[in-house]
From TrEMBL, chains A, B:
<keyword id="KW-0560">Oxidoreductase</keyword>
<keyword id="KW-0641">Proline biosynthesis</keyword>
<comment type="function">
    <text>Catalyzes the NADPH-dependent reduction of L-glutamate 5-phosphate into L-glutamate 5-semialdehyde and phosphate. The product spontaneously undergoes cyclization to form 1-pyrroline-5-carboxylate.</text>
</comment>
<dbReference type="InterPro" id="IPR000965">
    <property type="entry name" value="GPR_dom"/>
</dbReference>
<dbReference type="Pfam" id="PF00171">
    <property type="entry name" value="Aldedh"/>
</dbReference>
<feature type="region of interest" description="Disordered">
    <location>
        <begin position="1"/>
        <end position="23"/>
    </location>
</feature>
<dbReference type="InterPro" id="IPR020593">
    <property type="entry name" value="G-glutamylP_reductase_CS"/>
</dbReference>
<dbReference type="InterPro" id="IPR016162">
    <property type="entry name" value="Ald_DH_N"/>
</dbReference>
<keyword id="KW-0521">NADP</keyword>
<keyword id="KW-0028">Amino-acid biosynthesis</keyword>
<feature type="domain" description="Aldehyde dehydrogenase">
    <location>
        <begin position="33"/>
        <end position="302"/>
    </location>
</feature>
<dbReference type="InterPro" id="IPR015590">
    <property type="entry name" value="Aldehyde_DH_dom"/>
</dbReference>
<feature type="compositionally biased region" description="Low complexity">
    <location>
        <begin position="1"/>
        <end position="14"/>
    </location>
</feature>
<comment type="similarity">
    <text>Belongs to the gamma-glutamyl phosphate reductase family.</text>
</comment>
<protein>
    <recommendedName>
        <fullName>Gamma-glutamyl phosphate reductase</fullName>
        <ecNumber>1.2.1.41</ecNumber>
    </recommendedName>
</protein>
<dbReference type="InterPro" id="IPR016163">
    <property type="entry name" value="Ald_DH_C"/>
</dbReference>
<comment type="pathway">
    <text>Amino-acid biosynthesis; L-proline biosynthesis; L-glutamate 5-semialdehyde from L-glutamate: step 2/2.</text>
</comment>
Length: 438, 438
């Protein structure tokens, strides 16, 4: 009956060989998670950092175990006809494991958000008041076939004093079992509860659904992955969700924009890493923007496929190819070397286009006109508004948050890049010496 | 075809005499709300305060219109057999209208949360960064037959730069139409959009349901009312909700508690205003707490009906009556002069009882023991943790927030008393001079 920390204890029913009801199994996991969360909330920073470093060392030491499990997933994936792109995301190698360990070391070096006093005062009646950051409690994450997310989210949740329940993609299941075992054993060794990191993977889709409906048991659910996954979670969840990621990012090239800056920023925003959410997807050029032709030529020269409206087609430099844009292009997050380009007559038109098509992630203006910059900042209603810089800066690391949980495109709780603080809530602490209300 | 601001423009279908589809009508209202929200977000504090004062003056000036509409609701209520308690909540009189106007004046005197910089820095690459509070956008509220909430929520939403969509109880519909007309006319007079305050009342339950499902159109929905209303909204809403109000509040009487302080706090927490959410509902007494008998005698003397476990029954002072408590009593929010009382052997037992039955609103300890106070603060996972003071202090006004939107019992976005700041979100503003990512 003894169990190592690495194997999650399962319900009796499953030990008999019967698959228990997923909802009941997930509830049992969540109850264990709640108990573990209480212990994590009281662990001080030094203890949590020790756990993160223990996990990092263990990942490196048990590299072979992880790589072997990963090869098993890759072999099964090939047999099942998994796409090359998915297989690539699924693949861990020695360097990626070193990267995961290094990320955990970085996390250990970051300040602890727990215990930070958000505000406080002494009231006229002598009550001492403070609003303090405390862990959320039980964090859940549903993600796809990138096993690095397993380590990443577990590390972020632990550092912020939470317990976490994971649901990874079935394509990565052997790798995730190996990673989970390493993490749980490490927690056990430093005296923190192994159940602070659990998985519902063995219950498949039913497990994921039960997790989404575990109201009162899960404090926050974070979906990480493509649009379809995120929308499915947002639509089906009964627990609080933080919506992340979708970025139909716009850059508006104002009539006053200088050519050199415009070319630099557009090339960076589109080509530096086209597959991520903060890459630009639509360029709006003012009809009098002198920089337009050079920008289009530079983008085409860098291999960007342009999807343009009729008026932009009329100003294309000779030799630059483009296809005609439709409404689909304005809506689309290409996440590839494609860019939609439209011409506008005014900032009003630019703002209207953005309002119509934005996902509220990031929008930028390139301008030398102060009034236009101010107006763009005031009127754009997105998580990040950028003046004269690349949209690629909408990133927790770049904005100085240290670590990134994801990029929230919702308005409640967190908006834009989320750091450790966004995995906490607050608690009012009121201390008196007998005060009562009149 | 001309319309005064006081009458919301309705869809063409309804002008033909056909009731349009509630979902379509609510969508049209939400689109107008979004447009109004854009204008509200750009209004500075002076302008918003002018609107609040204009509404306050107008309420007083048009007092008779409101009272007449209110009498109509009361008359219909009596015909329909509405309970006396509901009729009382529904009733406005001249003094209550003065109170509403005064609350708006107070709101005008409060600082504007919009534009407050939450954090900011200049990055090593020269990017200037700030995270600024901005309005949520479209706030929705579903509430019951208290017409004061119409003015209250509208004022809070306007002050924080939002537009608001209201769904009041049908029992107050004439009063709400009158109040809405006064608010919208006042907005119009000061040059702010009347559509910043709209109602879906004419679409009845279908309107309320459509509002709950208006994903992407409503930024946050706040239910205000009893447990049933709040649970129905939480369970059915597809838009982000802030759960408010339920308070199964505990006080733990530690073995070291002094009698005088214990009596004062318990009497205040139970009898000062028993019908509200921050009133105490369960008292846990340590088996060695010397203050217990005096506390129970004082409560009984103040007319509190005690529901006690067997061990508490054994220490009841002579002449004090009590009924036997069941699990229902531990779970129940009486909101009346009733109190459940249990005896515990240790703080462990007290914490376990609270964990089992709490709604996460407020818990207090009465103690003279530093270690016990610290442990209670650390381990209680509720919006407010109070040491040696009445639980009645969990209130926006008392905690210095100025105005109160409600008391959040959830962990996401806001926890505990919510002020104006909790009706805002944030926006990252990034300003550079051509920065790109390496």
């Amino acid at each position: 009956m003894t169990q190592t920390a690495s194997s999650q204890s399962t319900t009796e029913a499953s030990q008999d060989g019967h698959k228990p009801d997923a909802a009941a199994a997930v509830e049992a996991i969540a109850v264990r998670s709640r108990n573990a969360a209480r212990r994590m909330a009281r662990a001080n920073r030094a203890w949590k950092d020790k756990a993160l470093r223990e996990i990092a060392e263990s990942l490196v030491a048990k590299r072979d175990v992880v790589l072997q499990a990963n090869r098993q997933d890759l072999d099964e994936g090939k047999v099942n006809g998994t796409s090359a792109a998915l297989l690539d995301r699924l693949t861990l190698d020695s360097k990626r494991i070193d990267g995961l360990a290094a990320a955990l070391e970085n996390l250990a070096a970051l300040p602890d958000p727990v215990g930070t006093v958000m505000r406080g005062q002494t009231l006229p009646n002598g009550l001492r008041l403070r609003q303090v950051h405390v862990p959320m409690g039980v964090v859940a994450a549903i993600y796809e076939a990138r096993p690095n997310v397993t380590v990443d989210i577990a590390g972020l949740a632990l550092k912020s004093g939470n317990a976490v329940i994971l649901r990874g993609g079935s394509a990565a299941r052997h790798t995730n079992v190996a990673l989970l075992g390493i993490i749980r054993d490490a927690l056990d060794r430093v005296g923190l509860p192994a159940d602070a990191v659990q998985s519902v993977d063995e219950y498949g889709r039913d497990g994921a659904n039960a997790l989404m409906r575990a109201r009162g048991l899960v404090d926050v659910l974070i979906p990480r992955g493509g649009r379809e996954l995120i929308q499915s979670v947002v639509n089906n969840a009964k627990v609080p969700v933080i919506e992340t990621g979708e970025g139909n990012v716009h850059i508006y090239l104002d009539e006053s924009a200088g050519t050199e800056m415009a070319v630099d920023i557009l090339l960076n925003a589109k080509t530096q890493r086209p597959s991520v959410c903060n890459t630009v997807e639509t360029l709006l050029v003012h009809r009098d923007a002198a920089a337009s032709a050079d920008v289009l030529a530079a983008l085409a020269g860098a291999g960007v496929r342009l999807h343009v409206d009729q008026r932009v087609a009329g100003i294309l430099p000779s030799g630059v190819q483009a296809t005609a844009a439709t409404d689909e292009d304005w809506a689309r997050e290409y996440m590839d070397l494609d860019l939609a380009v439209a011409m506008v007559d005014s900032m009003d038109d630019a703002l209207r286009h953005i309002r119509t098509w934005t996902t509220g992630h990031t929008e930028a203006i390139i301008t030398n006109d102060l009034r236009n910059a101010e107006r763009f900042i005031a009127e754009i209603d997105s998580a990040a508004v950028i003046v004269n810089a690349s949209t690629r800066f909408t990133d927790g690391g770049e904005l100085g948050l240290g670590a990134e949980v994801g990029i929230s495109t919702q308005k409640m709780h967190a908006r834009g890049p989320m750091g450790l603080r966004e995995l906490t809530t607050t608690k009012w602490i009121v201390q008196g010496d007998g005060q009562v209300r009149d």
